[in-house]
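@channel sequence for tomorrow's demo:
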Amino acid sequence: MPILLGSQVKEQYGLATPIFIDLRHRLYDDVALLRELGRALHAKIAGLAGGPQAPPQKILGIPDTATPLALSAAMASLGTSFPLGYAQMRKRPAAYPGGASGLSSFMGTFHAGGEITLIDDVMASARSKLWAIEALEKEGIRVARILVVVDREQGGDQILAEKGFPVHRLWTITQILDYFVRTRKVEAAAARDALDHLHERQYR
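structure tokens (generated this afternoon):
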């Protein structure tokens, strides 16, 4: 998992923080890892939605980092008993003068009775999720659930839950750092510093 700790963050990004999750620039160098994440996301959604008897499912990644994650999950669903449809969002709506679709951020189709799972790489403040939810609701699309790869445990999930949007994750940052310490990939002190930093900076 591409997570920078301690001096690595300063060296790579010039930031004064003991931890930085760098999915945007590092994950997509490893296509095999992207494929495995797609499989993990697909399996998680299947469990959350209720399996083959669930309503039709679509997956949508918050641009830009999560767009390939969502596509990888949809591809992983091919040939399984739990297929996922795929859709995208634009950061800025595209206008088609005179067209029936008008001003749209949503790229794809959505039918009443279906469910959308909103995907993102990291959960922190929830700001990007709230932006995506608002943009989709303007087009009559309700998000059924939110699924992130890593939850930084800074309270963003509670903000969304209070608004009626359940948040799920593949891993918490505590789980990842515990694994890194157990496998001696990082020093215990560096992991403690990172967790203390996150726990002191809560958004709720």
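heads up for whoever presents: The two ends are 26 Å apart (CA to CA).
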